[in-house]
Amino acid sequence: MRYMLIIHNDPEIHPVPGGPGWDQLMADYAAFSSQLGSYTGDPLNDPSTATTVRVRDGETLIVDGPFEETKEWMSGYYIIDCDGLDQALKAAAMVPSAEFGSVEVRPVAEM
Questions:
Q1: What is the DSSP string of 32-92?
Q2: Could you tell me the pTM of the whole model?
Q3: Are 89 and 80 in contact (CB under 8 A)?
Q4: Has residue 104 got a pLDDT over 60?
Q5: Distance between CA atoms of 3 and 98, rounded to whole angstroms?
Q6: Looking at residue 109, what DSSP letter applies?
Q7: What does the pLDDT look like over 35-68, one tens digit per residue?
Q8: Which of 73, 10, 75, 68 lies closest to 44 in space, CA to CA?
Q9: Which of 14, 34, 63, 106 is the most exposed place for a label (fewest CB within 10 A)?
Q10: CA-CA-CA-CA torsion for 93, 98, 102, 107, nearest 10 degrees?
């Protein structure tokens, strides 16, 4: 079964590129990724780079930035193969950024 680990970070406490703790965080992510073996995943740029598209009553609305104000923002994801939810939760607890935010675990719908 596939699960998506959706990583949410609080930018006020998450290390920033080049800042204290950044190199260690990247090393922790490299180690975590190698433990997973096969996965799909990538980091995302911060919300200021986002563009949100909505269609309402046939009209396309485009807004720069995230669609809602929030303290935490989605910063990356992994899609992993697991035997079940317990295994996916154990993997989520190992995501290095879980110390700075949260990791949402969601089953991938098989269509």
A1: HHHHH-SEEEEE---GGG-EEEEEETTEEEEEES-SS--SSEEEEEEEEE-SSHHHHHHHH
A2: 0.80
A3: no
A4: yes
A5: 16
A6: P
A7: 887 788 888 887 778 777 788 999 988 877 655 5
A8: 75
A9: 34
A10: -40
